[in-house]
Amino acid sequence: MNNDLKIFDELESSVRSYVRGFPTVFKKAKGYKIWDMDGKEYIDFFAGAGALNYGHNDDNMKKKLIEYIMEDGIAHSLDKATDAKGDFLEKFNNVILKPRNMDYKVMFPGPTGTNTVESALKLARKVTGRTNVISFTNGFHGMTIGSLSVTGNQAKREGAGIPLQHVVTMPYDSFVSENLDTMEYLERFLEDNGSGVEIPAAMILETVQGEGGVNAASFEWLQRIEDLCKRWGILLIIDDVQAGIGRTGTFFSFEKAGIKPDIVCLSKSIGGYGLPLALTLIKPEIDIWNPGEHNGTFRGNNMAFVTATESLTYWETDEFEKSIAEKSEKVTQFLTSLIEKYPELQGEVKGRGLMQGISTPVEGLAGEICAMSFKKGLIMETAGPEDQVFKLFPPLTIDNEGLEKGFAIIEECVKSLVATKEAVAAK
């Protein structure tokens, strides 16, 4: 195999996406670096869209995984009891749930983020006996029919090929402007018998919207959402598939808001190593599933249990969380300085933790910055309905040298592109 993309062009479906934005053949990865077939090194500010929060090929996880495989550990088990699953459940409870005073049953719905969202929606409807769900503008929750119905992106929704029903979309925090209180709007719809909006089974939201534009809800807004749900008997589902597992600074993205969702959806980095795994956390009183009522052939990915268990070692003390906070502040400072140095960006810093970016209204600029960054050895993607945000998603384990190298490439690209656009405009 060489660095030629011909085989992918000829044989892989046209649905392929990231290979178009990052047109090379990758061969090796370690930590925050990836190398292609020609040996060119790239800094990874993408981290598997949030699936590689601990970086590539973490030494301890790799060691545990190799040992498990070499000992003929069970790979596939559906939802049978295995030692790997038991070890994960015990450590997750002791390291994550108990210290946070959280009481949840753990469901393994299948291997991906959309599986956990589907199970959450299904359970909410079963518990409440209601049909509709309230989702929020620019939310992204997955690509299967249920999760797609609560997703805002029009292009993704059109791929369904059928009407997406039983969902009412409400404005996310600051969707219209910072001056418009979207909670008043939402509450009015629930209170008014003439609004046409029935009391829903659940509300589902991301505390920081990844694909939707790195929009961060305020802690106050999240608290008011929780209060509203409690008053109306609506289940609150937090989709922490991308924003969770430390990405926004704490293990769960909603911790600093002090809320206790009824259902929490986890996937992506919960497996630690990039292996497929998803969890649905359910308050015990609403865990009313009948055995096998929701299932999936690959809900027992034991190799992912092994690496997931080892990944929780990062959270046994508060040192890892402190390091994320320090790096997050560096990212915020860099992005803020970038806006100040280059007002032509007309930029706004978005997001929280190591899930931040700059939104620019200059048409196509965010995409051009990502494309030029790739040529210079940095992998980064856009977000938002118009791809107007370039977002920084480095592994949480990246060191300061890696961050600074990435910053330098981004600034070099911004400087070059802003100068080019000024020159074109002057002609």
TrEMBL record:
<dbReference type="GO" id="GO:0047307">
    <property type="term" value="F:diaminobutyrate-pyruvate transaminase activity"/>
</dbReference>
<dbReference type="InterPro" id="IPR015422">
    <property type="entry name" value="PyrdxlP-dep_Trfase_small"/>
</dbReference>
<keyword id="KW-0032">Aminotransferase</keyword>
<dbReference type="InterPro" id="IPR005814">
    <property type="entry name" value="Aminotrans_3"/>
</dbReference>
<dbReference type="InterPro" id="IPR015424">
    <property type="entry name" value="PyrdxlP-dep_Trfase"/>
</dbReference>
<protein>
    <recommendedName>
        <fullName>Diaminobutyrate--2-oxoglutarate transaminase</fullName>
        <ecNumber>2.6.1.76</ecNumber>
    </recommendedName>
</protein>
<comment type="pathway">
    <text>Amine and polyamine biosynthesis; ectoine biosynthesis; L-ectoine from L-aspartate 4-semialdehyde: step 1/3.</text>
</comment>
<comment type="similarity">
    <text>Belongs to the class-III pyridoxal-phosphate-dependent aminotransferase family.</text>
</comment>
<dbReference type="GO" id="GO:0045303">
    <property type="term" value="F:diaminobutyrate-2-oxoglutarate transaminase activity"/>
</dbReference>
<dbReference type="InterPro" id="IPR049704">
    <property type="entry name" value="Aminotrans_3_PPA_site"/>
</dbReference>
<dbReference type="InterPro" id="IPR015421">
    <property type="entry name" value="PyrdxlP-dep_Trfase_major"/>
</dbReference>
<dbReference type="InterPro" id="IPR012773">
    <property type="entry name" value="Ectoine_EctB"/>
</dbReference>
<keyword id="KW-0808">Transferase</keyword>
<dbReference type="InterPro" id="IPR004637">
    <property type="entry name" value="Dat"/>
</dbReference>
<dbReference type="Pfam" id="PF00202">
    <property type="entry name" value="Aminotran_3"/>
</dbReference>
<dbReference type="GO" id="GO:0030170">
    <property type="term" value="F:pyridoxal phosphate binding"/>
</dbReference>
<dbReference type="GO" id="GO:0019491">
    <property type="term" value="P:ectoine biosynthetic process"/>
</dbReference>
<keyword id="KW-0663">Pyridoxal phosphate</keyword>
